[in-house]
Design brief:
By secondary structure, this protein is an alpha+beta fold. The protein folds into 3 domains: 46 residues; 166 residues, Penicillin-binding protein 2a (Domain 2); 332 residues, Beta-lactamase. The protein is built from 17 helices and 19 strands. The strands form 5 sheets. Strands 2, 3, 4, 5, 8, 15 and 16 form a 7-stranded mixed β-sheet that branches. A 5-stranded antiparallel β-sheet has the order 10-9-19-18-17, sandwiched between helices. It has a 3-stranded antiparallel β-sheet with strand order 1-6-7. A hairpin with a 2-residue loop joins strand 12 and strand 13. The longest helix has 34 residues.
Amino acid sequence: MSRIRSVERRLIILLVIIFVCMMGIAGRLFFVQAVSATKYKKEAEQQRLSVIEIPPKRGAILDRNGNELAVSVTLDTIYATPYLIKDREGFAKKIAPILKVNEHELLDRLLKQENFVYLARKVDSQTVQEVKKVVRQDHIKGIGFLKESSRYYPDQSLGAHVLGFVGMDNKGLAGLELYYNKVLSGRPGYIKAEHDAVGRPIPQSTQRYRKAEDGSNIRISIDREIQYEAEAELTAAVQKYKAKSGSVIVMSPKNGEIYAMANVPSYDPNQLGTVNNTNSRNIAITDLYEPGSTMKAVTGCGALEEGLCNPSTQFYLEPTIQIGPNSVRDAHSRPAETLTFSQIIQQSSNVGMAKIGLAMGRSKIVRYLEKFGFNRKTGVDFPGEATGYYPNAANWLPISSADISFGQGIATTQLRMADAFATIANGGVPVRPHFLLDVTNPQGKVTESTAVAQEQRIVDPKICEEMRNILENVVLDGTGTEAKVLNYTVGGKTGTAQEAKVNGRGYSKDKYVASFIGMIPIRDPKLIISVVVNEPQGNIYYGGSIAAPVFSKIAEFAMRYLKIPPQ
């Protein structure tokens, strides 16, 4: 009896175990078929489907007259299906020298357990023909060729800092190529097709297809001819004075359109191997500098508008003035004399401007710095624009009102300074600097255009007219005489600023920034041209001697090219 009960217990235990196992299997089946069905379906689909992306054609960048500055061209890309290549080592040995790649790196790619690997992307036709010759001679299977879009810049380095460049995947990495990448890129398409266990396409298998949508073209405000002239004259000046770098901006004060923006040193975006941090930065927008005496036109407007003086107000100027522990003197030694406000700017007297700055005081100076936007970006459509800096008014030293009035102790971008002069030229109404004119889709329809973004007037138009008259005298009989343009009236301001030391303590005694910002023609300015040359070598380093002549040559060309009548 006890043996029967023992057997029964064993059977019950066995049945319980079987029941538990069956419930476990059922639970697992339910989890796989119901709870995780979507997941496993997706994984199965990924295993049997090949996805080939169809890249769109990147839109072109055109200058204001429709000239092509950046275009997309079609090049060949070489790929392989590794498992179809019988002698991978032998193939790598033959093909590596043609592709100019390392043989071992190429073999590593061919040994990967993948159905598709790139051997070389966007290569020239000669390379393709040499590879095809090897493939035909050795009867190699698994090598394919496809067409890919590649970026090409017809004018090489022309406008490189504005245009920027793209990477191998045709995505913008710098400049307008980066800023307008979404507009230019379009949307890629794709083909999805089923394949068998070894990667071969299954005939008449289910396929999914989406057509690629090409990118739109953008037309920008740059004028190729003016850009070329600006780059040529700037390069000549940088080379002549053995300067570290330089930049030029040509823009309209009426609508903020930038006709040219040149930087030296430069690079060719077709040769990305030559690009580095030194030659690729658009320093006119991304770098800060102390503007020096060009700032006198801005603080001078503030002094006139506040009624502290008028153009003929006289100031007695000592050779040197002491402000706390600091002293201020002019660039050229002179005896004590009396100068008018107009003459102070005309002769670029630091002592005179320091007295005017002290009379204005920190609150009024800060008010005009804010009005002219020195505490914010211009909003230009370009990546990496720097924000200017000046000390918080609460932290100003006794010398600060004097220093900032003639452009020391304040850092800004060249574009912001050009924009400030544009405001004076435009009767006190600021405009936003910009590059984009319009966007045209692949069907040829204009989908976007840039309207003139004028802001509220910040300076009385009569004050601006008085300042323009003063700036004209700077060119007629002041520090900017070398900026004259035959048959045209010009107004502008020179700047010769000592570079601040890297540690922020004091100024260098042998490193200068030579600059000139001018407007032409002075009665109804059509262009603002800013020239900055950094660290010229030798005994000539003044803005009136280095930057003003560059302005003159660019302005003369631009006036004739734009067919603006002489005055």
